[in-house]
Amino acid sequence: MTIDVEWRDYDVVVVGSGGAGSAAADAAAAEGARVLVVSKDPIACSDTKISEGNATVRGSVSDADTERALSDNLRVSGADLPLPALTDAYARDSRPAYDWYRTHGLRPKINPTRQGPFARPLAKGGHTVARSVGHKNAGVAFSHAAWDAVIDSARIDYLEDAWFLDLAVAGAEDGAAGRVVGGLVYHAAAGTLVAVRAPAVVMASGGLNTLYFPKTDTMRGNTGDGYAAAARAGADLVDMEQVQFLPFCLTAPASYEGLLVGEPSTASFLGVLRDRHGTVILDGVYLRTRAECSAAIMRAVADGRGTDGGGAYLDLTANARLPRSGKGFMRYLETSMPSAYRTARQALSKPAVRCEEPWEVRPAAHYTMGGIRVDATGASAGGPGDGTAAAGLAGLFAAGQAMGGVFGANRLGSTALTENAVFGLRAGRAAAGHARTGPRPAGDEAFRPLIAAAVARFGYGGDQAPAHLKLELQRAAWDCIGPARTADSLDRMDAVIDDLAARAGRAAIPDYGLWNQAFIEWAELRNLLDVARAVTAAARERDASVGGHVRLDRPQVSILAQPYSTVVRGRAGNGGVLRFHAVRAHRPRTPAGRLLVMRLKDAWRKAQAKALCLLPPGLLDPILDRRYRAILGPADAAPAVSPGGPRAAVADAAD
Ligand SMILES: Cc1cc2nc3c(=O)[nH]c(=O)nc-3n(C[C@H](O)[C@H](O)[C@H](O)COP(=O)(O)OP(=O)(O)OC[C@H]3O[C@@H](n4cnc5c(N)ncnc54)[C@H](O)[C@@H]3O)c2cc1C
Fold this sequence. Notes:
This protein is α/β, with parallel strands linked by helices.
């Protein structure tokens, strides 16, 4: 069969129409570029839309919230993996970036004394200053701004229901890095292939969390397409082993599987995690990180002590049982994360929702901290150390969840929506500049093999169903490169990928062009296989546990160890699946003295939390009652408390 090929010319192509893509498109258009936005979901329907709508706005509560403070928070919580140039850029631009959303219709509640948005009064875990601004319509408010930016400009065209398949790269012969000359798109709604000639492409295609479906709370389109296309074209990826799993997501019923019901803070002062026998596997849960909670659950599962649903029990009953403070706890539970609690109310039994019974929970993939390796302008970077754009793939830019390097081993709550605009705007501007000054695409040779490969798939009479292969891959990814990994599981993952790649080559695909679901499944499967290989290669290079990367067979990384990022670069292997070569890029370490002080403070908080639990109920109840009153305040509005203290930690909200 021959599917029609339509040719188009633009200065900049933006892949994705969430927060990052829309910001990039708007910035590139403002620089005079002709822009095409390509989006497989309807415009602005993405993780940005389903988010909780909390955004980091530096200085929204205090003038002491300096750029230094914000940049340091990102790096320390990311275990020193984040690139200082990126965290500094984030801190510098976070306020104008937030104002970009406001220009496109975001309407926060305004604090007249500070002439800015009202931030939630308590600092979220890892932020040393309160700076998280909530929004009435949560993520919808942000996606509406994204939609407004894309449809508002005469310089921006868009294609929805359109799958970006591959980057077209010219001049990559004889070991040269090559440069982007456009890309190939499958426009499912029109039933055509669209070959877009453009000197610059911005990847804003979100994460890879669908690799773990159904154990994920993100949109199903997170199939890692941007990472895979970039790697196939020769770009570096960074810290791909760092996937953030939220610990408290549902195991059942099936339609709620993977959805978020709480954060560590939800456990409050007395909540614990228990294994299937009722033995406590983690106490002081409210003071723990997401990664610590996920690791405790997955260690129990690996030891055969997991629940029937492959998780553990989040036991909040001790909080609710106390006669006076129990009421405060229930109010806290209802108000600190309203949407997560709403999900719990819909999915769990009535006694469980009243916290008379424990909740069965399991981690779920939430965010991809790694991604396309970029410099502070969003340009693809390569080479040793921090990398440079000169050694990257010329003409490739990335922003949002598609880029790596800014969050390292752990992303703090409320930082992603801001990051979308910080790096979306930077990447859009840089892409427009590159299109203005760089060479224009000459000739269409780079497109020919891409078009031939895609056309050959339509009407391919194979014996495998790509949708089924996808499910097999997702199951294996959870078991082998999910929230807990071992050297053995990484080897098993490689074997599964080899097998599935071979079978993907025999995928049966009908010959029609219009909305060919099997072709879409095949294209996404190919990307998922490539990113699974990238995660596995990076996880093997990272031979100790840090942040989102938990090795059951290896120790936690020492605070005295030299931090490094993993950098992987692909080259085509048999069956078209990439093989990745992994190297380390060293990062500066936060001085050991400062880290030691942080560790000691943390140990002191945990000791205090333990001591509290040992008090008899008669003494404990009034103490906790006072604490809940302080947290909730007279009108359920929490007052300012010392960030980092136990009372601040318990009120951390999710993002
Ligand atoms: C439940 C939930 C709650 C969250 N809450 C918060 C919060 O309160 N605060 C916060 O800061 N962060 C939050 N996050 C994280 C945050 O929402 C996301 O990280 C962020 O919005 C990602 O933006 P993005 O533009 O990078 O990607 P997305 O918004 O996911 O957009 C990706 C775009 O790429 C498109 N795309 C992908 N592949 C292709 C392809 N091959 N061809 C064409 N188009 C493609 C998609 O269709 C989509 O348009 C939350 C996430 C979830 C899942």
